[in-house]
Amino acid sequence: MVTHVPAEAHGDERGALLSFIEEQRGGIRRAVLGLTDEQAMSTPSASELSLAGLLKHVVEVEQLWLALAKGEPPAVERDQSNWHECFRLVRDETVESQLAYWEKVAAETEAFIRSVPSLDDTFALPPQPWFPPDGRVSMRWLCLHLIRETARHAGHADVIRESLDGRTAFELVAEEQRAVAEA
Predict the structure, then answer these.
(1) Which domains does the chain have, with CATH numbers?
(2) Most buried of the four, 11, 72, 102, 122, by CB within 10 Å?
(3) Which one has a higher pLDDT value, 53 or 133?
């Protein structure tokens, strides 16, 4: 799993952007490493955020933006009646199922970004009060937005994990690397 994207990685802009997205995904994946669903759903800080909720949120957000770029409806429609479910596991959802779904969404994101003719290609933003009217964004903007969104929540995840059991991102990177070496 990527923990640092070297300057020469993947040789082109698309590869670099996709590598930075994956680097930030790794931060959130590592934050739930070795936790039970109950631990991942706990809220050990002043915030109502949990690691499981952050995981679910970033998966839904990535899938939403991918759907918008493709001109498709999102997998999950959110509005005021169900927005709260975006940040918590519900029904039969588990950390494992969210990680598996994210793997699928990440592969779709990579395939889509690699397939567009140009990162300058644009798509229309849906009418929402927080978007400019008749707004359009480029595929490059989409990648940068996914990096920003995922990185922001990876930082939250670091704080929550350390509040939960004292484990830092550095310790989790080392644990992950040991597990990969032993596999």
Answers:
(1) 13-182 (1.20.120.450)
(2) 102
(3) 53
